[in-house]
């Protein structure tokens, strides 16, 4: 399956019903889903550690796609995309850029969540003319506080999830308050809304490569984020355990004129917990 631009637009399609497409990127098939009006600058969504297409929050995707062209993608080796998952953030960024160019797109808005936010920063720093606006959620800068500890933290909560018959994201993304628990259950229910043609689960090999990339990113020297000259929205919960919330404040301080949104009593998945507030903020930011 290859990408074409002459298909009938799915203006009212929901993410749960959106077909999975494929495009050849230098000999490797990358799978993606797109929805919303196919006009203007598309928003490319770059996802978190261990995530494939079915892990994008449908409320956020549908909310953006009500007015914007939205493209979600499995990077190399993730889900049903072919190839071997890179073990560095710069390689992941190059793959994402190659995917965008394979679609024939010359300018994008980037929305990077968690690991996707690391990749998004690298894209903006290396390909500044490609990106018009940037949204960074639940993420941090290279060398940021606690980022090199993501692997042990995640493995502990994966074991906890296995022992309690829960998705690890229940523990990793949300606070343990009543509010956080309710939000976790609602979010995990939303991820099950797609009933057919679901994506392939991420492989242990791919997950291991992502862990390696994140640890290296957490240990590397800080990047000059003052070079990011495009409008940037930075968002997180105030209780992020995975990528400590201090990193969100650091990003907002170091990226010129960045707009900061912090949600109280919310963790790594703060934008999922507060999607009713976040989606309108994101849309108005992108359309301003």
What would a concise description of this structure say?
By secondary structure, this protein is an alpha/beta fold. 38% of the residues lie in helices and 16% in strands.
Mind explaining what this structure looks like?
Residues 42-274 form the AB hydrolase-1 domain. Pfam families: Abhydrolase_1. With 288 residues, the protein is an alpha/beta fold. It has a single domain (15-287), classed as 3-Layer(aba) Sandwich (Rossmann fold). 38% of the residues lie in helices and 16% in strands. It has 10 helices and 8 strands. It has helices spanning 58-65, 89-102, 115-126, 150-164, 169-172, 178-190, 204-219, 246-254, 270-273, 275-287; strands at 21-25, 28-35, 43-46, 70-73, 108-113, 131-137, 232-237, 259-263. An 8-stranded mixed sheet has the order 1-2-4-3-5-6-7-8, with helices on both faces. α1 links the parallel β3 and β4. α1 (58-65) runs parallel beside α10 (275-287) and α2 (89-102) crosses α3. The longest helix has 16 residues, at 204-219. The chain starts with 20 loop residues before the first strand and ends with a helix. The model is unreliable at 1-11 (pLDDT under 50).
Structural class: alpha/beta
The proportion of residues in beta strands is 15-25%
* Radius of gyration over C-alpha positions, nearest whole angstrom: 17 Å
Q: What's the count of strands? A: 8
Helix content: 25-40%
Q: Can you name the CATH architecture?
A: 3-Layer(aba) Sandwich
The level 1 CATH classification is Alpha Beta
The geometry reads as globular
Calculate the mean pLDDT score and round it.
95
CATH superfamily: Alpha/Beta hydrolase fold, catalytic domain
Give a short account of the largest sheet: 8 strands, mixed
Could you give the order of strands across the largest sheet?
Answer: 1-2-4-3-5-6-7-8
Kindly report how far apart the N and C termini lie. Answer: 35 Å
Kindly give the count of domains. 1
CATH topology: Rossmann fold
Spell the H/E element sequence.
EEEHEHEHEHHHHEHEHH
- Extract low-pLDDT stretches: 1-11
Number of helices: 10
